[in-house]
Design brief:
Shape: globular
Structural class: alpha/beta
Distance between the termini: 21 Å
Helix content: 25-40%
Number of strands: 18
Order of helices and strands: EEEHEEEEEEEHHEHEHEHEHEHEHEHE
Radius of gyration: 20 Å
Length: 349
């Protein structure tokens, strides 16, 4: 089967790969659609970030080169002999997070933290294996394209939970890429009032505005603190840092009210220089979130299924697997009008 395989920085190849033998607790999914994530883009541009290169990953037992792709959905093709929760023909989204499963629910996503598609073979191919416990049936109200959006939407939903966002809270978001605008949608669904989004790309800011931001600003053209004061004189109650650079980390803290909360949702590919006194002087609380609990993944499907979360507006292109480098990774690198690019595998809906 054809697959997009990561070999190194700027080195993703379309190759013929064999599906690994199915374990008793796993299912084989015929992949319909898979999304290119910001994490995938980091691996392409600057990797390895997560991909294991010096030794086999503790949870997957795999090492590069690996098949990428962790945002995917499809149809169950085969089930292992111990699987009872899904059956052949079920339409499913795959939760790619792998853990040891020894921690309470609220800590589960940090109990090992490996990803199908980053630490081992994933969904940029025709068929992918996953533990049955990581496979969630989709309601009839969602297509398999929608299913490919569940994983990034769950990241945003978990970030909003981490920020303890309340009805009526004022929110700032730094970074209007896919996770940034999904965080905007999750914050709206959670009851935020004013949501102010900052980015350097006019195209991405326009998408944030179209998806419901109260106001958008090019952070190179305004003082973010003064811009935020127009909507929240004391500062944001909760701020989400979704850009992953030194200046946005500092700005996120600056626009947040005393005793407010900053949630880091981004991946920092490089170390930054930052003085913690920026927190001490204001009492701002700093936390972070990168994954999601199994419950949050299930709730994301439920909220999408009822229409309370509608992430479909972030899709900007659909491409073939053969074009994943040029029309996928290179397009996301060079064209800021691109947000979520879906890769067509079987194309089932």
């Amino acid at each position: 089967m054809k697959a997009a395989v990561w070999h190194g920085q700027k080195d993703i190849r379309i190759e013929d790969k064999q599906l690994k033998p199915l374990k008793d607790n796993e299912v084989t999914v015929r992949v319909a659609w898979a999304g290119i994530c910001g994490s995938d883009l980091h691996e392409y541009q600057e990797g390895p970030v997560f991909v294991p290169v010096d030794g086999a990953d503790a949870l997957t037992g795999e090492i590069a080169p690996i098949i990428m792709g962790h945002e995917f959905a499809g149809i169950v093709e085969k089930v292992g002999k111990d699987v009872t929760t899904v059956k052949v023909g079920d339409r499913v989204a795959v939760n790619p997070t792998l853990t040891y499963g020894n921690k309470p629910e609220d800590l589960d996503c940090y109990d090992g933290f490996s990803f199908i598609g980053l630490h081992g073979d994933g969904g940029f191919t025709s068929f992918a294996n996953a533990p049955a416990s990581n496979v969630y049936k989709l309601p009839d109200t969602l297509t398999l394209q929608d299913g490919a959006l569940v994983e990034p939407t769950a990241v945003a939903m978990q970030a909003v939970k981490e920020g303890n966002l309340l009805f009526g809270d004022n929110v700032a978001i730094f970074g209007a890429g896919p996770i940034g605008v999904l965080t905007l949608l999750a914050a709206k669904a959670a009851g935020a009032s004013n949501i102010v989004v900052f980015d350097l790309s006019q195209e991405r800011l326009q998408m944030a505005k179209d998806l419901g931001a109260t106001a958008v600003f090019n952070s190179a053209e305004v003082d973010p603190v003064e811009a935020m004061k127009r909507y929240a004189p004391e500062g944001a109650d909760v701020t989400f840092e979704v850009a992953g650079v030194q200046q946005t980390l500092k700005s996120s803290i600056e626009v947040t009210r005393p005793r407010g909360t900053v949630v880091i949702v981004s991946i920092f590919a490089h170390a930054v220089e930052w003085n913690p006194m920026q927190l001490t002087n204001t009492g701002v609380k700093l936390t972070s979130s990168i994954a999601y609990t199994p419950t949050s993944f299930r709730q994301t499907i439920d909220l999408m299924g009822t229409g309370q979360l509608k992430p479909q507006g972030i899709i900007t292109d659909q491409i073939e697997l053969d074009d994943i480098v040029e029309k996928g990774f290179e397009a996301l690198t060079n064209d800021k009008s691109q947000a979520k690019i879906l890769v067509k595998l079987s194309g089932d809906m």
